[in-house]
Amino acid sequence: MLYIVGVGVCKGHLTERAIELIRNADVIYGSRRALKLAEKYIRSEKRIMSYNDAEYKRIEEESKNKNVVVLSTGDPMVSGLGCKLNGLIEPGISSVQVALAKLGVDLCDVIVVDAHAKKPENLNELLKFRHLLILADKKFDIKIFGNRKVYLMENLCMENERIVFGKGSDLEIKSDYAIIFVRR
Amino acid sequence: MLYIVGVGVCKGHLTERAIELIRNADVIYGSRRALKLAEKYIRSEKRIMSYNDAEYKRIEEESKNKNVVVLSTGDPMVSGLGCKLNGLIEPGISSVQVALAKLGVDLCDVIVVDAHAKKPENLNELLKFRHLLILADKKFDIKIFGNRKVYLMENLCMENERIVFGKGSDLEIKSDYAIIFVRR
């Protein structure tokens, strides 16, 4: 069986269900960060995974006669592994939730945009309807917001967490784990 | 101190952080369902709360000299208590996440709409951009989707969970915990 398990973004985000799945795994895959977040409960072999189709295929094969757990930082269905691997999904706390909790904004008042390694479309049109919460990396051009004031949240729950508020034109993204909040 | 703590929607959704806050509370408020989900870890007095401004104000007052935990089913920032009470938010797994995991759809490809006790606007316009995930109750008119096929998910993780797929005109919402997924 193959389980894709969200481990959250902060220490202590693991759910009871996720812990149970991790404890019962025969082998566990994940990024260095995801493995670290789940460390306390890992009893089996752990492997740092690659993120490409060949690896996904191989892991799916392996899960035919083993309990394989693939860890996903945050939630597997938030710009995560959930759509890439064919297995059972166990939700985890995403960076979107941590950001909204800090901002005091409800998910039903925003549109979440994935701008990781891609240029998002329709930002201006979407802004007519809702605030935007943009998942971004260093390559994202935050200057496009010009004089508009935005929140830039980087490395949430990591040692070097940084949250700044200012005009888009004055800000610079320094991390590949960035979230930008743009008020409607 | 006042903590608004998400307890998730399924058994076993509590995070380690949520469990810690619940264990250390002097008093715990919540709906019957939320208190049930957290039951195992409650050591203090528990109180079923009312959902009105006077109650929120009273709880905020009480938290000035006590550790007060208010439980929120799902996540406090998903059509939740997070915007109504002034306290520290601890995220939990929301029904939105459970629904997306079942559907195999990423949060960044949908717009989440709150149609609980209100008529949502712009549904047709929003559908031009993304799939919709609508949090609805019995009063929501699912027939507006006519011939369009939608998923109707009710009572996720409860005893009477029901998931159906069909034309909007053929479906009927029987629960106040309903989620409708409409493909773009």
TrEMBL record, chains A, B:
Top-level taxonomic group: Archaea
Start and end residues of each Tetrapyrrole methylase domain: 1-171
UniProt xrefs under CDD domains: Precorrin-6Y-MT (cd11644)
Pathway per the UniProt entry: Cofactor biosynthesis; adenosylcobalamin biosynthesis
BP GO terms, sorted: cobalamin biosynthetic process; methylation
SUPFAM superfamilies xrefs: Tetrapyrrole methylase (SSF53790)
UniProt-listed Enzyme Commission number(s): 2.1.1.289
Xref: Pfam families: TP_methylase
Protein's recorded name: Cobalt-precorrin-7 (C(5))-methyltransferase
Phylogenetic placement of the source organism: Archaea, Methanobacteriati, Methanobacteriota, Archaeoglobi, Archaeoglobales
